[in-house]
Amino acid sequence: MGADQAGGADATDDVGAEGDVSGADGVSGEDGAGRGAPEDLPGARRPAGYRRSTGSRRGEARRRELLERVTEDLAVHGLVGFSLRRAARAAGTTHKVLLYHFDGSDDLLRQATLRLRARRIDNALAAATGGPGARSLADRVRAIWPVLMGAESGLRVLDQAIGLALYDPERYGELVRDASQQYLPSLLSLCPAQWAEQRRKEVAEMILAVLRGFLVHWLTSGDTTGVDAGLEALARALEREEAAAG
After folding, report:
1. How far apart are CA 143 and CA 35, in angstroms?
2. Buried b vs exposed e over 118-157: b needs ≥16 C-beta within 10 Å?
3. Global pTM?
C-alpha cells in the first residue's frame, strides 16, 4: 500500500505484500488462542512474519499519531464494538497499516487504555495537589474521588476495562494489572515523604484497592450515599495513620 487514507504517501505505512490478513476485525470466529471471540471484543493479531515498524523517528511519530486517533475514538465510543477495522476507520487508515505499527487489536487497545489512564492520573494529581497550603493525605484522597466519578469524555472506558478483565482474565487481565502499575507511583507520591517506604507502599495499595472497590460499587449500584460514607471512613483511617506516624 503506497499511502493510507490519512493523506500522502508514507514509507512507514507501506506494509508490503506479505499476504492478506484474514479475520482482522477480531469481531467473529476464533481468536489466536482458539476461543470464540465475542462480536464486541477485540481479537485480531498480527500474523507471523508480518512486517513491523522499525522504530525510526518517522515511524515512531506516525505510530503516535495513529494511536492518538484511536485513543480519541475509544474515549468517545468505548470498548463495545472495538475492533481493528473500527480503529483503522478512526485513524483514517487501513488495518494493515495498524498491523505494521502494532501487534494487533489487543496491543492497540492496551496502548490506548494506557493513554486514557494517564489522563485520569494527571487530572487526579492536579486535584489532589492543587490549591493553597499543604493538604493532608486524607484531604488529597477526598479531592481525587470527584475526578474518578467525573464524566469527562473517555475516562469511563477505563471502568469498562475492569469488566473486560473479569470476563476474560487470561486475555485481558493485563489491562487491570497495568492500572496498578500506573496508579501506584502517583499514590506513593501523595503519601508523606517522611514515612518509611514500606508504610507508604502499604497505604498506597490500600487507597488504590478501596477507591477501585468504591468505583465498581458506584457504577454497578448508583449508591452515592453509601460510597460517600465509605470514603469518609477511609479518610478517617488515613488521618489516624498520619497521626500515628507523627
Report:
1. 43
2. ebbbebbbebbeeeeeebebbbbbbbbbebbeeeeebbbb
3. 0.72
Query: 190-193: long-range contacts (C-beta < 8 A, 24 or more apart)?
Result: 190/125, 190/128, 190/129, 190/137, 190/140, 190/141, 191/137, 192/137, 192/242, 192/245
* Assigned fold of 115-245: Tetracycline Repressor; domain 2 (1.10.357)
d(CA 246, CA 236): 15
C-alpha cell at 127: 486535584
Contacts of 48 (CB under 8 A, 6+ apart): none
Distances (CA, A) of 166 to 29, 108, 161, 205: 21, 19, 9, 20
Collapsing DSSP states into helix, strand and coil, what is residue 104? strand
Contact 115, 71 (CB under 8 A): yes
pLDDT tens track for 14-38: 333 233 333 344 332 233 333 333 3
155-199 confidence digits (pLDDT tens): 778 888 888 888 889 988 888 888 888 999 999 999 999 999 999
Length of the chain: 246
Residue spans of the domains in the chain: they are: 20-108, 115-245
Backbone phi, then psi, for 17, in 5-degree steps?
-130, 55
| Measured distance CA(92)–CA(103) in Å, rounded | 18
